[in-house]
Amino acid sequence: MKVAPGASTGLVFPLGNSDKNIFSSPDEVKLDRRPNPHVAFGFGPHLCLGAAHVRLVVRTLMDTLCDKVARIQIFEHT
Questions:
Q1: What is the pTM of this model?
Q2: pLDDT confidence tier of residue 13, bands split at 50, 70 and 90
């Protein structure tokens, strides 16, 4: 794709998490995906300052949920 001189462009980082060349099933939630090269929190000098906090909150939520329920059943929406 060519961009004309003076034209504006944009980059949508979350779309990188849907790349079928990188993720075998990009539309499935896989909490144990390894490797998981997602770009949801940015990277390098642009890493989200809240990334560590969000990971801790989600980990705590999942631990608490797993302690409180006997099983989790996934329903597929069609």
A1: 0.53
A2: low
